[in-house]
Structure formats: structure tokens, C-alpha cells
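Fill in residues.
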């Protein structure tokens, strides 16, 4: 689950979280608590998706929402208060 602003400043945490997920998994990325996402984070998600597809895995994310978060059409308050450092954990699920 991602939360807060997901930008290049948090890219190392996002990259590490993605690297911890086996590429043959089905990864669900929840965006309910994301307020903004920059280009670097979107590229990182896309890179993981391409690698996962080659390994038999899958990324499940609402790309239309991601685009809105980047374009500024969906900058909003998260549905629940964030911790001071935000939250960039990712929950893997085995591929079906």
C-alpha cells in the first residue's frame, strides 16, 4: 500500500519494496491514500510491471488513477491520517 506523495525522494524505498516482491507474483498497488505521484515513481512501477510480465507475474494498478495523480487532476487528501514518514510498503500476492 502506498500513501502520501510518491516522488523521487521516496524512490529508494519504493524500489526496495518492489525488489522484495518475487517477479512471478501478482502485485496489487493500492492508491487510496496517495496524494501525488511523480514521473520517476510511475516509471519505476512500469519497469517492475514489464519485468514481472516476462517472469509470469502481474501488476494490478489503476493506471488511469496514476495518470491523474501525476497530472494533478487527483491531488487530494488521503482517506486516513499518514504517519510522519508516510508509508511505502507493498503487499505481494502469489500469482494465480
Amino acid at each position: 500500500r502506498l500513501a502520501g506523495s510518491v516522488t523521487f525522494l521516496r524512490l529508494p524505498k519504493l524500489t526496495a519494496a518492489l525488489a522484495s516482491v518475487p517477479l512471478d507474483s501478482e502485485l496489487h498497488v493500492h492508491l487510496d491514500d496517495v496524494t501525488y505521484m511523480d514521473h520517476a515513481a510511475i516509471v519505476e512501477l512500469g519497469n517492475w510491471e514489464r519485468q514481472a510480465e516476462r517472469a509470469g507475474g502481474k501488476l494490478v494498478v489503476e493506471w488511469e488513477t496514476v495518470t491523474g495523480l501525476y497530472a494533478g487532476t487527483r491531488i487530494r487528501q488521503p482517506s486516513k491520517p499518514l504517519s510522519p514518514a508516510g508509508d511505502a510498503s507493498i503487499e505481494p500476492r502469489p500469482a494465480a
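Confidence is low (pLDDT under 50) at residues 82-91.
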